[in-house]
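Entry 14. Two folds queued back to back today. First construct below, sequence then structure tokens.
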Amino acid sequence: MAIDFSREEAQKERNYGPVPAGSRVLVKLHLERTKYPSREDPDIAEAQSGLLQLPCKIEVAEGTYAGCSWFENITLQVGMQKIRLTEGQETAAKRGGSMLKAIIEAVRRIDPADTSTRADSQRQINKWTDFDGMVFPARLGINKKGYVGKDGKTYWNNSLARIVACTDKEYNDLMRGVEFITDGHTRGESTGTDIPHGGNGRLPYDDSPPPSERDSIPF
């Protein structure tokens, strides 16, 4: 009996990343089961300091780097925190809250400038697991801190720098799987030129580290 491979997909070159800084791609968020759940909600991770975060795996959904993934803890908004926040923790919570809001807006195509009652109702979720499986376009950065693999080499991961809003001129293209890959740097200790291919010039990105080591939750 013949074994038929005629209907299999053509082979593709696998790029393991990281994706060059400043690139805009379509990504998918997977909510991870944390080893350090909060006492109130097992879907939320609680750092040693008491800071609450959403444990996520971010995966590039389309394009040259499809399948490239990394883990990222997104700090919950200030109103969800149960501890007295330091200045650094408050900054992280405000940034995390803004990012989670931007993800919802991108997925549900809500104009960030729309302050109507209808738009505000669409910015609500019922539970944290609603984020699981959300697909949205994002501009990526590179973590400043690398990690040493079993081979002794240092590797760097991507990070979410900015969520692309539905009002952005690139949004529809990105949602269709079009990518904008820059020649930006792929190491946390260097700079790079970061000129987009098919984009419109230099794009800054935010890859700030967590407020402190006690706020960093290992996966």
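Second construct, same run, same settings:
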Amino acid sequence: MAVDINLLRMLKHREDFRRVFGRVPGSAINPETKAILSDYKKYFDKFPDHATVDMTIFVTLFRTWHSTLTDEKRSVYELVLENAKTDVPEGVRQEIMRNVLELRMSTDLANLLLEFEEGNVSNINAEIKRIQTAFKADAGISEITFIQDDIHDLLDADEANEGLKFRLSCLNTSMRPLRDGDFGIVAGRPDKGKTTFISSEITFFAPQLPPDRNVLWLNNEGMGKRIIPRVYQSALGLTRSQLLVLKQANKLKEAYVARMGRLDRIRIVDIHGMDNFSVEQIIEANNAGVVIYDMIDNIRGFGGESRTDQRLEEMYKWGRDCAVNMSHVGIATSQISVEGDNMQFPAMSMLKDSKTGKQGACDFQIMLGSLHDPGYANVRWIGVPKNKLRLDNAPADPRAAVKFDGPRALFVDMPVMDGDINAKTE
């Protein structure tokens, strides 16, 4: 196939190899081309200063790396390598790139149909759309312009402290307000207040959003309808019994709208069993300003990686990309591993099933520390071991004790007495 020999001619240059090799679908090229391209990579690793494969050296190495080839097979390879010595004309390079993208798209579509026939694809339309979108994005890359935001506007936004402020002052003193494209992780041990923390903060975020934008809570744990009362408690700062009093007086919804602006300002959607493409459609349909991915670890569509940590890393990268591409604040919930049990300030690496993958995909990581001591049942510790939103002249990690007000579904600042972050609450 002509594209095979042209690929070998083009990719023997390190820069072209770096840009193109990852786009070449192995199943769409012949075995000889695939083997030689793999050896190109070995060559560049062996000679990091070589900008181009020296074919004389390469042929010698190739014979060593494939010493068990028959004479007939070796002759085939050497003929291919002889043809690969010629460079492709400059005008042909873009055509080769287009051919590679078309090969990848056709291969992806063929593989998708096979998976669909075997019953492994739940949403084939979304998958086809993803493949087409990827092709259009790569094929039209030359049409993408550079970012032209004015530096004055960017600095004005920082100076004005624009964005969504947290309910907790300890977070506001360490982090700038949240803006579209920011992506963070909130983690805690099981049954230690993670859902309450999210409810407490989003009911503070919602009134700060433009009137037409919403908070979207993508629920992947338990029944979403059970979260709704907690959201009302957080919004109004009331216990369940106090909510019932307002309900009986027919004033509950009125009080909630007075705080949130609309009854549907915070939207909870159960996404159990859904894949990432279905989730993206939900986000688009709800004009989200804040999206809570709870729990992002359970979203389907990331089965390409065999190792759990690699699959999770892809999930969190996807969440970050959604926040950027769909212009919202993204917050993913995660669990703190057993290493962080009974600790005030678990370390950044103490996320369940991930030492670095999840963490690398986020702008900030809020850890909810807790102790087993019954005297601290109403206390949680807020740590921010990763903070790319740090304010100037402020601590990156507040390491603060806060009150966990479970009956009212709130996390609230707690005065520190004599510098003692371990102060108990009544």
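Quick look at the second one. The beta strands are 183-188, 214-219, 266-270, 288-294, 329-335, 364-369, 379-387, 400-405, 410-413. The chain has a mean pLDDT of 84.
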